[in-house]
Amino acid sequence: MTAPDESAAFSQDDATVRIAGHELTKRYERRSVLRKLNLQLDAGESVVLFGPNGAGKTTLLRVLSTLTRPQHGTLQINGLDSDSDGIRIRGQIGVLAHQPYVYDSLTARENLQFFGRMFDVPDLKRRIEYVLAEVELLERADDQVGTFSRGMLQRIALARAILHQPSILLFDEPDTGLDVASVRVLERILAEHCAAGGTLLMTTHDLDFGLRAASRVLVMARGRIELDHPACGVDRAQIESMMGAPGA
Amino acid sequence: MRSLDKVFAIVWKDLLTEVRTRELVVGMLVFAMLTIVTFNFSFDLTGIERAPSGAGALWVAFIFASLLGLGRAVALERDRGSFDGLLLVPVDRGMIYLGKLLGNVIFIAVVQLVTVPVFGALFDLPVYQPALFLILLLGTLGIAGLGTLFSVMAASTRAREVMLPVLLFPVALPVVISTVRATTLVLTDQMEDLVQWVNLLAAFDAIFLTIAFLVFDRVVED
């Protein structure tokens, strides 16, 4: 399955800093999930975030995607303040979470039509064909998503996340449920995104996949970034040991 | 105009989903019909109290059917995670509220479209009046407007089935009283007092819908 090349260079602004979080703090009742976390991602960076369960990775992605607000700290995405510019920020990020964020009773094409309308995607019909080809779902485009396998659901979620050509991808365990061929599709899409100047922040528990897909490694524990290192030359044993640590 | 297009996209999505799954309207309709039939057999319909009893029965049916549908609609979307997907679109969340509200109003209107003629026949009351349709519209807007907001709040709590009526009832009381009173006046042909109740109902609707539109953004965050 081939698709016309639609990868585009991202140039929303001149800023090289795509994500700038300063002292982000998030608590649920008495439990601190993010503790004065500082984070900066530049344009074109692909970053993998490792950490044990409960370290705060998913909460961090929810804060970055404006689904939840931090109690303290400041966050800027593409130079926009998350408190006052949430709508514009949401137009510039693509989010893939544990749940696929699609509607079971709609077909794959109808789901993308719906989200395309919501994101004002230009030339939507052609763009839908392109992303469906990218995730190798053209043949199932008119089937209801409720009939899809776990891996196919993850691929349609991936298509939804990249449909509006966001400059920043925030992916929470995107490799979950994917077979080897689908992981290759995912890796290709991520590589194309970063080659075009896009920024990627993703979490995964698969060390090999994470180190292949990213150029920078973060390890999170107890609501903080405990390790920040280029992927090249990183100490795998150290990451494995930190990933085995209790999360909170 | 672009924002309105997004409101209609949400309505289109909700209607298409309901047409394919029939998870909401069928249950609401059965509940409403059951209520009307039950009240029909329990009330003495030969006396002069037929219209007030009928108005009460009609709105008990619609309010409880609405609670059933509104609670389930948001709970389904929350459980499947698709509600977060909706919150990630670059649209004022007030517009998302309007889209969900419009869909809910359509679902309740479908239930009313079937229930009202049956109610008219069973209670032998004059239901085919423009004034009654105006009250149905205003009452439905008030109930659905508050219900849409509170169902989103209740959906993220553990006891959501209990929370929705607990949250909705005290706030919706002015809408319920105005609606039942106005319906009674229409069914008993006392049109001279109707205007003040309709005005009151319209005013409550305007206030509640405006507040719900403005606070929806904060309500949907965890």
Uncertain stretches of 5 or more adjacent residues of chain B: none
Largest sheet of chain B: none
Structural class estimated from helices and strands of chain B: mainly alpha
Gyration radius of chain B, in Å? 18 Å
What is the 3D shape of chain B?
A: globular
Which percent range fits the helix content of chain A? 25-40%
Q: Can you count the beta strands of chain A?
A: 10
From the spread of the alpha carbons, the general shape of chain A counts as globular
Unreliable segments of chain A (pLDDT under 50, ≥5 consecutive)?
Answer: none
Largest sheet of chain A: 6 strands, mixed
Order of helices and strands of chain B: HHHHHHHH
Q: What is the N-to-C succession of helices and strands of chain A?
A: EEEHEEHEHHHEHEHEEH
* End-to-end separation of chain A: 45 Å
Q: Mean pLDDT score of chain A, rounded?
A: 90
The percentage helix of chain B is over 70%
Largest interface: A-B, 32 and 24 residues
SS elements, strand count of chain B? 0
Distance, first to last CA of chain B: 30 Å
Structural class of chain A: alpha/beta
- Beta-strand portion of chain B reads under 5%
Oligomer designation? heterodimer
Task: Give a quick precis of the structure.
The complex is a heterodimer of chains A (248) and B (222). Chain A is α/β, with parallel strands linked by helices and 248 residues long. Chain A contains eight helices and ten strands.
